[in-house]
Amino acid sequence: MKALNSFGFPVLRFNFRGAGLSEGEHAAGTGEIDDVRTALDWLEREFPLPIIFAGFSFGAAVGLRAAYADERVRALIALGLPAGMVPTGSGEDRVYDFAFLRTSTKPKLFVSGSRDQFAPPGKLEALVSRFADPKKLVHIEAGDHFFEGRLKEMRTAIEDWLKTEVLNKTLPTNH
């Protein structure tokens, strides 16, 4: 949030249905895709600017699915993207399918901790290698899934990528 805001982008953070104090019930990812689309609609109405999608963990997995084909979204950022089986707490593991990113030509940044229990470096590298270019994968050394103690490094990775790969290449020069 702070990395995008430092470039003057308005940032919208929200809880998915059934999380925190939000209304509704968790919908196993399907309804949450609609939540992201609703958020994109709101951003477009309130701030007529190019949109960069950024999501963390489940939010990245669900949000990428909503944002990758949306023409309003110029670039994609996934933090802590789950690359293996993720326990849900209900006794079932969740596995995400990201095959849709094999054809997405939007700039994509993936940032993960080198000790992320839901995205071991080898699995994440293999997954990202199948995605269409342009893409970049950054491992934050000694970072866990939540980037505990490594938020500065995560922010720097996002800011550096935005400067070199996105702002000068895909966004209008008047931004």
Describe the structure.
This protein has helices spanning 2-6, 30-46, 58-67, 121-129, 151-167; strands at residues 51-56, 73-79, 86-87, 93-94, 108-113, 135-140. It is an alpha/beta fold. The protein has one domain (2-9, 50-167): Rossmann fold (3-Layer(aba) Sandwich), CATH 3.40.50. The strands form two sheets. It has a four-stranded parallel beta sheet with strand order 1-2-5-6, sandwiched between helices. Helix 2 (30-46) crosses helix 3 (58-67).
Keywords:
175 residues, alpha/beta, Rossmann fold, four-stranded parallel sheet, two-stranded antiparallel ribbon, globular
User: Compute the gyration radius: what is it?
Assistant: 16 Å
Full CATH superfamily name: Alpha/Beta hydrolase fold, catalytic domain
Strand content: 15-25%
The helix/strand series, from N terminus to C terminus, equals HHEHEEEEHEH
Average per-residue pLDDT, rounded, comes to: 86
Low-confidence stretches: none
Structural class designation = alpha/beta
Classify the helix fraction into a percent range.
25-40%
CATH topology name, in short, is: Rossmann fold
Main sheet, how many strands, which sense, barrel? Answer: 4 strands, parallel
